[in-house]
């Protein structure tokens, strides 16, 4: 079955710096890759997603890149702010379900 | 509107109690999901409903009993739970079953089993 690996597990940056989180997947049939942000005590919220026919997608300070040949995708957050502090999960669609990475706890220090 | 609502927000129950969790969406989505999430872990799939029929049960113990009364509602009935069942229970929905599409999550029910 699909396996999604996510790195790093924790990431601490200064406010204004960039943050990058990387994921790899194993199922070559996966074509949909969402990223979720989960704040303490809340459910995961979709922040950006990408499909395999696109190499990069941007939404203001957030971007996702996908390398389908290498089976990896990354989340880039620029000009980080304290409110970006949360746990981020990558996911890949496989055999009818989303398979999640283990999560990255991002801390943005003022 | 991409909102999935869940009630209650918090629930404390004893091991002999029977309780239910409720989930609702009005986006016309035809797939609904129950996930269990332990602290510092990703969501773990429990059940999938496709067009109001149970399509996936990820070997969940029978003390968890899902129900889909209509296309907007999803319930999770709880009975004789164990302390290790304490977790955040998340409901999600997506437009079409088996399609590679976004799943929208509710805020979750924080369950504590004493």
What is the beta-strand fraction of chain B?
over 45%
Structural class of chain B: mainly beta
Helices and strands of chain A: which structural class?
mainly beta
Major sheet summary line of chain B: 7 strands, mixed
Query: What can be said about the biggest beta sheet of chain A?
Result: 6 strands, mixed
Order of helices and strands of chain B: EEEEEEEEEEE
Tell me the series of helices and strands of chain A, N- to C-terminal: EEEEEEEEEEE
**Secondary structure tally: strands of chain A:** 11
Supply the number of helical segments of chain A.
0
Estimate percent helicity of chain B: under 10%
Q: How big a fraction of the residues of chain A is strand?
A: over 45%
Shape of chain A: globular
**Interface with most residues:** A-B, 22 and 22 residues
Task: Show unreliable segments of chain B.
Answer: none
Low-confidence stretches of chain A: none
- Shape by Cα distribution of chain B: globular
As an assembly, this protein is heterodimer
Q: Can you give the helix content of chain A as a percent range?
A: under 10%
Radius of gyration of chain B: 13 Å
Note the total helix count of chain B.
0
Secondary-structure blueprint:
The complex is a heterodimer of chains A (110) and B (114).
Chain A: E1 4-7, E2 10-14, E3 19-25, E4 32-38, E5 45-51, E6 56-59, E7 62-67, E8 72-77, E9 86-94, E10 97-100, E11 104-109
Parallel strand pairs in A: 2-11
Antiparallel strand pairs in A: 1-3, 3-8, 4-5, 4-9, 6-7, 7-8, 9-10, 9-11
Chain B: E1 4-7, E2 10-13, E3 18-25, E4 31-37, E5 44-50, E6 53-57, E7 64-70, E8 73-79, E9 87-94, E10 104-105, E11 109-113
Parallel strand pairs in B: 2-11
Antiparallel strand pairs in B: 1-3, 3-8, 4-5, 4-9, 5-6, 7-8, 9-10, 9-11
